[in-house]
Task: structure prediction
Amino acid sequence: PWTYLGWKITNHNITPQTLPISAKISNLNDVQKLVGTINWVRPLLGISNEDLHPLF
Result:
């Protein structure tokens, strides 16, 4: 399979890559990584901007 911009592409389907989400937050960089990951998968999960407003 190929990977391209966060997607795993095979002959039969296209799926998002598995994202490692760390629940251990200890500094600002960890928060930024978590928010970036959530923002990337937001359209796939149907999460609205209003739902994420408290994070920004």
